[in-house]
Amino acid sequence: MIEVHNVHKNFGDTPILRGITCTFETGKCNLVLGGSGTGKSVLLKCIVGLLKPDIGSITFDGTIFTNNKIEIRQEIRKQIGMLFQASALFDSMNVFENVEFPLQMLTPDMSKEERRDRVEFCLKRVGLENAGLKMPSELSGGMKKRVGIARAIAPNCTYLFCDEPNSGLDPLTSIKIDELIYEITHEYGITTVIITHDMNSVVEIGDHIVFLHKGLKLWDGTKDEILNAQVPELKDFIFSSSLVRAAKKVEQEGGTIETSVGEPIQGE
Amino acid sequence: MVKVFGQYLLFLQSMLVRKERVRVLWNRTLDEAVSIGIDSVFIVSIVAAFIGAVTCVQIAYNLTNPLIPKATIGFMVREMTILELAPTITSIVLAGKVGSSIAGGLGTMRITEQIDALEVMGINSTSYLVFPRILGAIITFPLLVILAMVLSILGGYLAGTLSGALSAQEYIEGIRDAFIPYNITFALIKSVVFAFLVSSISAYRGFFTEGGALEVGASSTTAVTHSIIAILVGDFVLAYTLL
Ligand SMILES: Nc1ncnc2c1ncn2[C@@H]1O[C@H](COP(=O)(O)OP(=O)(O)O)[C@@H](O)[C@H]1O
Ligand SMILES: [Mg+2]
Predict the structure, then answer these.
(1) Chain B residues within 8 A of A49 when measuring between CB atoms
(2) What range defines the domain where residue B197 resides?
C-alpha cells in the first residue's frame, strides 16, 4: 500500500498540489482521475521521487520514502516501474535492449541467459514477442506503450505507475492497453497507480479511484460508487462526455441505444 | 550569472557522487569516444589541411624580404598551427559538431522523459549520461588535434610546393628548425581543457532543457556559443599562465 500524506507542491508562487492525502491499495488498479492541468502528473512525480514535495510525505508499504536516507530511497526505487506519458523509450536502443536495460543496471548478478529469458518472457507477456529487434522509431503508439510496460515490469516491480497510458491512442487500442495493465496488476499482485482523464478506463479497470480537482482530492471510492458520487465537480467531469450527454438525450426522449457490448442502454 | 555558474558546478559534482559501476561507465565512454571521433574526423581533416595551406600561402605572400630565408615559411607554419591553429580551431569546429550533438541529444532525452525514466530506475543520470560524454571528449579531442597538426603541416607543404612559393627541401628544413617539444605538450593540454569545457557546458545546457523541440534547438545553439566563448577565454588564460 502506498500512503500519500498531506502533500503540497508549489511552482514558484503557484500552488499546484494543495494538501493531498490518499492511499493506493496493494494488488489493485488505483486510478487518479482529473482534468488536464490539475496536477496529476506532478503528484505522480512527487510519489516516485522525481519531484520533492514542499510539505508532506509518501510511504511505501510502511517505509517512508520522502526525505529518507538515499540507500533506502534507492531500494524503493528499484521496486518501482513506470510507464511514461510519451513512453520514454531509449531511442538509441532497440526494443529488446530497452527491456533488458533495467535488468542490466539493477541486477548485475543476473547471467546473460537469465536476462534474455526474462526479456523474452516480458515481451511475450505484452504481446510483442517478434518485435525485439525493432527500434522505437519504427513502433506505433500502442506498441511503444507495450514496450514501456514490458520495461517497467522486467525487474519484477512491486509498484507500477502509468501516466496517461491511453493518451494518443485510438479507443480500441486504449482498451487493450488498459486490459493489459489490469491483468498484469492482478496476476502479480502489483500496486498500480494509473493517471487518467478517461471515463472508459474508470469503468473498465478502476478498482480504486481518487478524483483530483485544482490540486485537491475531492473524492475517492470504487467504480461502482463513482456514478452516485455527490461531488458536483466530479459529476460535471463524468457527465461532460458528449457521448454520455447524447445517451442521456436519447434516454430523455424515451429511446434505446443498442450496442454489441453488454446489454442495451434502456430508456424508461 | 553567478547562479548559473553555481548550478553548473553542482551539476558537475552530481556526476561524481553515487557513481554507476566502472565497467558500465567505461563501455559507455568508449562508445562516446568512438562516435565523437568517427563523426568528426572528416570535418577536422578538411579544416586542418586547408588552414595549413592558407597559412603557408599567406605567409609566403607577406615574406617578400629576400634577406629572410624561405625556410622561415615552413617554420612559421609549424609554429602557428601547432601552438594555436590546430588545437584552437579544431576545438571550435568540435564545439559546433560535438557540442551541438551532446546538447541536442541530452535535450531530447530530457523532453521525452528518458532522463526521468533513468532516474526512476534509481540510476544517477548525470553519472550515466554526462560523465562518459565528458571523458569520451577528453580522450578524443587530443587525438583529433594531433591529426589536425599533421594534416595542417601537410596542407602547408602541398600549398607551398605546388604554388612554387618554396621548395620541398626548404619547407622541411623550416619545419625541423628550432623545434620545441613543449609546444606539443602545451597544445595537448589545451585540447584536454577545451574538451572538458565543450562537453561539460554542452551537457549542462542540454540536461536542463525545458519545453519542447524548439527549446532543444535553442539549447544546442546556446551550447555552441557558450562553448566557443569558453574556448577563447580558456585559450587566453592558458597562454598567459603556461607560456
Ligand atoms: N516543472 C514545472 N514547472 C512549473 N510548472 C509546472 C511544472 N510541471 C507542471 N507544472 C504546472 O503544474 C500544473 C499541473 O501540471 P500536470 O500535473 O502536468 O497536469 P496534469 O494533471 O494534466 O498531468 C500545470 O499548470 C503545469 O503548468
Ligand atoms: Mg499529465
Answers:
(1) 119-120
(2) 21-242
pTM of the model: 0.88
Q: Which ligand is nearest to the CA of A84?
A: 2
User: How many other CB atoms are found less than 10 A from the CB of residue B180?
Assistant: 11
CA distance, residue A222 to nearest chain B CA (Å): 29
Contacts of B112 in chain A (CB under 8 A): 86, 88, 91
Shortest Cα–Cα distance, B115 to chain A (Å): 8
End-to-end Cα separation, chain A, in angstroms: 43
Is the CB–ligand 1 distance for residue A40 below 6 Å? yes
How many C-beta neighbours within 10 Å does residue A106 have? 18
* pLDDT string in tens for chain A (268-residue length): 999 999 999 999 999 999 999 999 999 999 999 998 999 999 999 999 999 999 999 999 999 998 888 889 888 998 999 999 889 999 999 999 999 999 998 888 899 999 999 999 999 999 999 999 999 999 999 999 999 999 999 998 999 999 999 888 888 889 989 999 999 999 999 999 999 988 888 888 999 999 999 999 999 999 889 888 888 888 888 887 666 677 777 777 777 766 655 555 544 4
Domain boundaries, chain A: 2-228
Q: Is the CB of A36 under 6 A from ligand 1?
A: yes
How far are the Cα atoms of A128, A205, B35 from residue A184, in angstroms, in the given order? 15, 12, 39
* Nearest ligand to the C-alpha atom of residue A14: 1
| Mutational pocket test of ligand 1: of A14, A17, A41, the residue with most ligand atoms within 8 Å of the beta carbon | A41
Domain A2-228 has CATH 3.40.50.300: yes
| Amino acid residing at B26 | W
Is the shortest distance between the CB of A42 and ligand 1 below 6 Å?
A: yes
Q: Is the confidence metric ipTM above 0.90 for this complex?
A: no
Residues B73 and B54: their CA atoms lie apart, in Å, by 12
Express each pLDDT in B91-147 by its tens digit: 999 999 999 999 999 999 999 999 999 999 988 999 999 999 999 999 999 999 999
Ligand 1 pocket residue status of A264, Cβ below 6 Å:
no
CB neighbours of B44 closer than 8 A, spacing ≥ 6?
Answer: B90, B93, B94, B144, B147, B148
Question: Does residue B211 belong to any structural domain of this protein?
Answer: yes
Going by alpha carbons, the residue nearest to atom 9 of ligand 1 is A42
